[in-house]
Amino acid sequence: MTELRLLVQLAGEAALLLWGLHMVQSGVERAFGGKLQVLLATRLGRPSRAMLAGLGVTAALQSSTATALMIASFAAAGAVALVPALAAMLGANIGTALIVQLLSFDVGWLSPLLILSGVVAFRTGAQARTRDLGRVAIGLGLMLLALHLLVQTLAPVEASPMLGQVLAALADAPVPNLLIAAAIAWAAHSSIAGVLFVATLAGSGVLGAEAAIAMVAGANLGSALNPLLQSGGRAGQRARLRLPLGNLVNRVLGSVLVLAFLPVVTGWMQALDPAPVRLVANAHLAFNLVTSLLAFPLLRPLAWVLARTLPERPELDEAMPRYLDAGAASMPSVAMANARREVLRIADVLERMLDASARAFTEEQRDCAKALATMDDVVDRLHRAVLAYLAAIPAEKLVDADAERIAEIQAFAIALEHAADVLSRDVARHATKRLRRGVTLAAEDRDDLAALHERLLEELRLAVAVFMVEDAEAARRLVRTKERMRVTEREAARRAALAAPLPLGEPGATPGLVLDAIRDLRRVGAHLAAVAHPLLERRGELLSSRLAPQRAVKG
Q1: Which of 449, 445, 473 has the alpha carbon at shortest distance from 461?
Q2: Burial class (CB in 10 A: 0-12, 13-18, 19+), 396
Q3: Side-chain half-sphere of 146: how many Cα atoms within 13 Å?
């Protein structure tokens, strides 16, 4: 029962450490997630700047795994080259080592103060950011409390005879030590938690110096597995694995060097600071500094090898989502950026549908309707995938602003899907009817339809501008374009009412067909213009009703 109680205590205290780390990470994400993402995206240019950006973002998030998912998302979208992305990962690894350095000092007395101030800020804060920073303070306090409890729990273990036998068996077996630590860090999804746990064991006398350093290398190795496993690897997306695999290669080579020169490395670390906890923290920092310095000059050759090993392959299925990384769903800012990129793919498909629709009224090819139906299937599948991806984001990690952004992404995806449905079902039906009946459109009708398709393409581009950057001028132009389409519809209706029936095949035959097509194209424009309404309403530039105020009617 004593051993079982000890294991339960250790498990509970380790869980408290992980929960504190989670609260810090989630609090920083909620308070500064968007700004950190922009910072990272704008600094991934030169490798040196990318390395510093990775260090800074990781120091804020307290998780190199979270930073790796952000960088992998940018690299998968082609927004950053592989060499700066690999450099940013080196900085992220150093960032975790600096965090461990801070937490390795005896600052347990800060725990009650941090928890108290965090609770006060969380309960009384008027602004969301104040509450989020309170969450960060609570998380830091819980982490320090967990480390203090771990030290107390492990103190009696040092004198255990059984432990002495186990340590003697493992003293000359660094590889098992490394693998155990790798498994702990992988399960915790954090090298910080893994290294702090090793430092606690070393500080309690449970681990010798060589075993502790081998476990430090193992913790670094295990935490590199999480981004690799969460990056997927679906068919046609092997290039997504380049960045996490490159980071894993760096950690593997570093671990091999540590094992090869373990006695020498142990002597250096003991000479620097023999205190067990500081020895572990210094070994963690030295591991990442040395591997980064060795790897930095070799990033270009490494990127070349990764590109040759994992080449970019064309998508086997155009309807397969490219940017909806399931591993990033736990980070709302990254997940929303991924969803936005996937929605832009839907917009690209809709643009091709508009081109095909325009050709369907001028060319004599009967496969236009089939092509529109095929592209509509792609839009439907991507639309469902985006909505499911956004629904998978944990609600407890969302703030009000995040919920609003998710609603905007969902609304735009739905508008694009509705527009695609109108094109594939209704507009394509009119084009097919024209071919089946042998109708030749009059020059005026062809010009109207061509002009409408051009306006819809313009509307689509304006809608994307409103969606991406909330461009107010683009929103106004979008609404004005919609009104011009209403004028075109009225003119087509007037011509249809005045036109006399003509034999099939004669130019200008069946003006009702053209009118129906124009009305359906106007419906497409209405779906696209809907994205402008919320922005203009917030700015007070759109009336809630188009009806003019009623005048008093005399009896």
Answers
A1: 473
A2: exposed
A3: 23
Q: Which residues contact 513 (CB under 8 A, 6 or more apart)?
A: 430, 433, 434, 439
What gap in Å lies between CA 315 and CA 304, rounded to an integer?
A: 22
The pLDDT value given to residue 228: 80
Report the b/e string of 446-484 with b at 16+ CB within 10 A: eebbeebbebbeebbbbbbbbbeeebeebbbbbbebbee
Q: Give pLDDT < 50 ranges for the chain.
A: 1, 233-236, 315-316, 500, 502, 504-509, 545-555
| Nearest alpha carbon to residue 460 among 352, 327, 340, 299 | 352
Tell me the CB-side half-sphere exposure of residue 535, using CA atoms within 13 A. Answer: 25
Please provide residue 312's backbone torsions phi and psi, each rounded to the nearest 5 degrees: -70, 120
**DSSP symbols for 256-268:** HHHHHTHHHHHHH
Q: Which amino acid is at 456?
A: L
d(CA 186, CA 183): 5
Structure tokens at 51: 């390395």
Q: Which residues contact 540 (CB under 8 A, 6 or more apart)?
A: none
d(CA 375, CA 369): 10
| Average model confidence (pLDDT) across the chain | 79
Helix, strand and coil content of the chain, in percent to the nearest 5, comes to: 80, 0, 20
Burial of residue 187, with CB atoms counted within 10 A of its CB: 0-12 exposed, 13-18 middle, 19 or more buried: middle
Helix axes 82-103, 191-203, angle to 10 degrees: 30
**pLDDT tens digits, residue range 415-431?**
999 999 888 888 888 87
Structure-block tokens of residue 140: 């830091």
Amino acid at 457: L
Which has the closest alpha carbon to 203: 106, 93, 268, 288?
Answer: 106
Report the pLDDT value the prediction gives residue 294, as an integer from 0 to 100. Answer: 93
Cβ(339)–Cβ(409) below 8 Å: yes
Per-residue pLDDT, 504: 45
Type of residue at 235: A
What is the residue type of 33?
A: G
Q: What is the C-alpha separation between 138 and 9, in angstroms, rounded? A: 21
- What does the block give as tokens for 384? 């469902």
CA distance 356 to 347: 14
Amino acid identity of residue 218, one-letter, is: G
